[in-house]
Design brief:
The complex is a heterodimer of chains A (139) and B (151). Chain A has 139 residues and is an alpha/beta fold. Chain A is 50% helix and 17% strand. In chain A, strands 1-2 form a two-stranded parallel sheet. A two-stranded parallel sheet of chain A has the order 3-4. Chain A is elongated and about 60 Å long. The model of chain A has no long low-confidence stretch (mean pLDDT 89). The radius of gyration of chain B is 17 Å and the shape is elongated. In chain B, α4 packs parallel to α5 (134-142). Chain B contains five helices and five strands; from the N terminus they run βαβααβαβαβ. Chain B has helices spanning 13-29, 49-52, 55-86, 100-110, 134-142; strands at 4-8, 32-39, 91-97, 115-119, 147-150. Classes of the chains: A alpha/beta (139), B alpha/beta (151). The interface between A and B is medium-sized, with 20 and 18 residues.
């Protein structure tokens, strides 16, 4: 779905001579309380968690790199952004505001969607409701 | 990319803004605009009214209201059509009756539009809360084509 959104974004960027900000959020979660664990176990859990975030970041970075190279080849100016956050929708809204973007182009659902029910995913819904600028929901 | 763009208009400021966006997009992508106004059917007075007013009179008055709304909508849409023409954008319009959201969705499916451009809140919205109006929410959730929500 995000690829379709990117496809639309490419057309927009070309037609309006606009810059694209590629934004990926690596979703982090809060760890449950580890109070009943020994110090060494706690360290192990935390380390495993941090490693998984690092691995995710690496993979996301590679994906961003690939997409931005493709766009650059077509002569579109691209900025890559990778953010680790627990609230993807809030972060998207934030970036849209601080970068003062003209339009947000987003897929109707992301990785967790129920494709059969044609409704909005939680992130798309929250973004479409709270972002300050026009938003294009792609499906 | 975009050949037909559906623009639902209800006469609100936000819909006007959506129209301006749609005009710009149509111009850049060489697309055709389909302007749509839906006249709500729910002007039927309920319950107690029927005790005092004869049903036939209610029906007649409703028809009068709808006819009036249709005329006003036609004038309004013709104005918009002129604006399209001035900008060199091909456009057509349609006036439907019924529930706004479902008529918009139906029209989008029937005409196989490539994009819907609509305002985030219409005439009954609370603008201070920057959320979606009921119509734009329902449309953006249930339609099968991309939706651009303007605010």
């Amino acid at each position: 779905m995000a690829d379709v959104a990117l496809h639309h974004a490419t057309h927009f960027a070309k037609a309006y001579n606009a810059e694209i900000i590629l934004l990926t959020i690596v979703k982090s979660i809060n760890l449950p309380s580890l109070a009943f664990m020994s110090t060494s176990e706690r360290r192990k859990v935390k380390q495993a968690f941090e490693e998984s975030i690092i691995a995710l970041k690496k993979e996301s970075n590679r994906m961003l790199e690939k997409k931005s190279n493709e766009l650059s080849k077509e002569g579109i100016k691209v900025t890559k952004m990778l953010i680790v956050a627990s609230d993807p929708a809030g972060e998207i809204i934030n970036v849209a505001k601080t970068r003062d973007v003209d339009i947000v182009i987003i897929g109707s659902r992301g990785l967790k969607g129920l494709a059969k029910l044609q409704v909005l995913g939680s992130v798309a819904r929250k973004v479409s409701e709270h972002v300050h600028c026009p938003v294009l929901i792609v499906r | 990319m975009y050949k037909t763009i559906l623009v639902p208009l209800d006469g609100s400021k936000m819909a006007d803004k959506a129209f301006m966006h749609a005009l710009s997009i149509a111009k850049t992508f060489d697309a055709e605009l389909l302007l749509l106004t839906v006249i709500p059917e729910n002007v039927v007075p309920t319950g107690a009214y029927r005790t005092w007013v004869h049903p036939s009179m209610v029906r007649r008055n409703i028809n009068e209201i709808i006819t009036l709304a249709r005329q006003e909508a036609t004038d309004f849409l013709n104005e918009k059509m002129e604006e399209c023409e001035k900008n060199g954008v091909k456009a057509s319009y349609k006036i439907l009756e019924g529930d706004s959201a479902s008529q918009i969705i139906k029209a989008a499916d029937q005409k196989k539009v490539d994009l819907i451009v609509m305002g985030s809140v219409g005439l009954s919205g609370i603008k201070k809360l920057k959320t979606l109006g009921s119509v734009s929410r329902k449309v953006s959730e249930n339609v099968s084509c991309p939706t651009l929500i303007v605010r």
